[in-house]
Specification:
The protein is an alpha+beta fold. It has one domain: Pemi-like Protein 1, Chain: D, CATH 2.10.260.10. Helices cover about 20% and strands about 20% of the residues. The chain is built from 3 helices and 4 strands. Strands 1-2 form a two-stranded antiparallel ribbon. A two-stranded antiparallel ribbon has the order 3-4. About 0% of the residues are buried.
Length: about 80
């Protein structure tokens, strides 16, 4: 009999780093933006309008999460 934990193994991608330039948007230049790597977006099956979760970590860095739970259902 299969172990149920095997079914829920998290998706694993190699550790990669991308460089991104911060850009301004709008005439007021109050909003900053960066682009997301196409390979990551494709691997996460993201599309225009997908809602991502961004978490501010204690060291000041940001962590971006693909949709999960109810958010993922909205995407499908």
């Amino acid at each position: 009999m299969s172990n149920n934990a095997d079914i829920y193994k998290p998706f694993s991608m190699p550790t990669l780093k991308w460089l991104r330039r911060v850009q301004h948007t709008g005439t007021d230049h109050l909003t900053f933006l960066i682009t997301l790597p196409r390979s990551w977006c494709k691997a996460m099956k993201l599309r225009k309008g997908t809602i991502l979760t961004i978490t501010l970590l204690s060291d000041g860095s940001l962590k971006i999460y693909p949709p999960e739970g109810e958010n993922k259902k909205w995407m499908e």
